[in-house]
Amino acid sequence: MLGLRLIGRTAAEVRRDLAAVQARDPAAQGVGALQILAGWPGVHALFAHRVAHALYGAGVCAPARLIAAVARSVTGIEIHPAARIGAGFFIDHGMGVVIGETAEIGDDVTLYQGVTLGGTGFATGKRHPTVQDNVTIGSGAKLLGPILVGHGSKVGANSVVIHDVPPNATVVGNPGHPVRVEGRRPEGPDADWIHLPDPVAEAIRGLASRIAELETRAASEAADGARNGTPSGTPEGRANPAVGPSPAGG
């Protein structure tokens, strides 16, 4: 009975996963489901996890861990059998992806290579992220601890996220912080990473602009002082230092 339920559930999940690949991976356009099933490492890892998770949930832990270990060695993607993953999950390329034991992933989530959903320290209990539906996480991003990533959010490549992410937000940086929060946004992944805001670059541009403004002002004041006969370095309107005997004597 367990075998029949496992096969039926896994088959339904795999069909949804294959549809997600065809919808979100440009390299899969016009490619049949069998070819994707045979040649996409992210699909292999996810298929293995679906089986391992069902076995793990049924208390058959040793075979589940073995399946996860084999999948890791073959695909380079490590998913703990206890991790909960929703329908329509897509791992693009996938090498280096790590998903921890207590991680929870909603429906229609997209991960790129090198993403880590990891824990911090040696805490027990819930220690990995919860990712809600329609989230996209860029290459190399690290989400650490029992944080919540809200529905429809986007995490930029190489970001390190250690705090909760609001729904429909864009997060970049190390540590990651929201740089854009929208009231509503279209559903589905948006991989236009090159146009994400860069708060560090914006801050540097602001400082450079301010420095240029101050230099221009200083040069203008120096030129005015030279025309008016004001000694260089002595602001207009300020009395020159007193000349005479030192009040301290000598």
Structure explained in plain terms:
- The protein has 250 residues and is an alpha/beta fold.
- The chain has helices at 2-24, 33-39, 41-57, 61-75, 199-228, and strands at residues 78-79, 84-85, 90-91, 98-99, 104-105, 110-111, 116-118, 130-131, 136-137, 142-144, 148-149, 154-155, 160-161, 169-172, 177-181.
- A six-stranded mixed β-sheet has the order 3-6-9-12-14-15. It has a five-stranded parallel β-sheet with strand order 1-4-7-10-13. Strands 2-5-8-11 form a four-stranded parallel β-sheet, with no helix packed on it.
- The mean pLDDT is 83.
- The longest helix is centred in the C-terminal third of the chain and has 30 residues, at 199-228.
- It has two domains: 2-195, Hexapeptide repeat proteins (UDP N-Acetylglucosamine Acyltransferase, domain 1, 3 Solenoid); 198-226.
- It contains five helices and 15 strands.
Helical content (DSSP H or I, runs of 4+): 25-40%
Spans of at least 5 consecutive residues whose pLDDT stays below 50 are none
**Strand content range:** 5-15%
In the CATH scheme, the class of the largest domain would be Mainly Beta
Mass-distribution shape:
elongated
Structural class: alpha/beta
The count of helical stretches stands at 5
Fold-level CATH name of the largest domain: UDP N-Acetylglucosamine Acyltransferase, domain 1
Main beta sheet, described?
Answer: 6 strands, mixed
